[in-house]
Amino acid sequence: MRIKVVSKDSGLSQLCKEILAEVIQDQSCTFSAASLEDLNDSADLYILDFQHNFSLPKNIRWSYSNLVVLAHRREMAEVQQVFGFEPQIVLKPITRATLSALVGLAVSNNVAGSLRDDRDHIFQGLIEANVKLQEYDHERTNFLTRVVHDFRAPLTALNGYCGLLLGDPLGSLNDKQQEVIRRMQYSVRRLSRMASGMLQLTVEREIKKGPDLQRAEIQRSLEQALQEIGYLAKDKNITVRCLVDGCNEELYFDPAQLDQVLVNILDNACKFTPRNGLIEIHGYPFFWERRGRLTSANSLPKERRVRNGAEPNSYRVDIRDSGTAIAAEHLESIFEEYTSYSAGGDRSGGGLGLAICRMIVDQHRGRVWAENTDEGPMFSMVLPLRRFGSAQSVRSA
Predict the structure, then answer these.
(1) CA–CA separation, 391 and 397 (whole Å)
(2) CATH number of 214-396
(3) Helix/strand/coil for 348
């Protein structure tokens, strides 16, 4: 089976390649990418990135069984007019889950060969239902964007008023009053982070803008995050131990975004650590085998470096708490968007905080994951060192 992605977007081609690798087990399938201008050979399945005023090659025979079209909602009428029928459509901005489901259906349909008429009708009905669901999802996204925007303005103002009260220009406060205002400010900042997180997950991730990479110290980001969650730890009498090893290589990251990741993970740890419990933080250089998938610490970094003689190519942070273990089936799902499970130990936070962590770390070309250890659940992340980092907008702090 020959599959071709028709797009000038290399990122889209890579996403399609990853999805096809997941849904296709047949080694005889081949994958390739091309722009519309270079499309001069046939394929069994086309994934076409639709653009306004397309001029389609006349030597290609298009049908809804061999075509998946990626288009904006406003372009749907034009798509139907160009092809003369309503193909399988994935609405932009594209979500991995939607594209994966529809491509899987298209591949299954193609591999199965000719289908009976009644099955064709069912398949067409599924396509129409899929488009409707995507429309509803886009409407939900637009609604959330408006709501979050309305939330952020008063939260910003409230945070500013708290700062004014603590700065004494409006009159001095006693120690108890200052403590109350600080707690109010912490809660306001937490709400503001949640609002920003919702905006990131609904809109900003679709904007192709990488992190503002700077040469920075992870120790400073950890100190900032610990200060943010200090009240939570104090209220539950949680002991926090932090050990950050030095690194010979320079580490580049977006300080504001990494602060957000560390605060979200530490906030999660404080929430699920019992009273009088313990949170341990360890940062250290790490050899990251990028071809492997980091899902556990069965292969310890120091052992691997000694055995293979490999120099550290990343920096790793482990945050372990003395809370109860995370159910094995939820170790991956807690990082998924808007997901949660009905249990007292739901670490996903409604699928917001940890989903934001994964999105930010992925943008830094790193990895974040969770696992259970003998001492308690542990959240880990790795960030590539400079020579493995992105070439985009790197500047000195």
Answers:
(1) 16
(2) 3.30.565.10
(3) coil
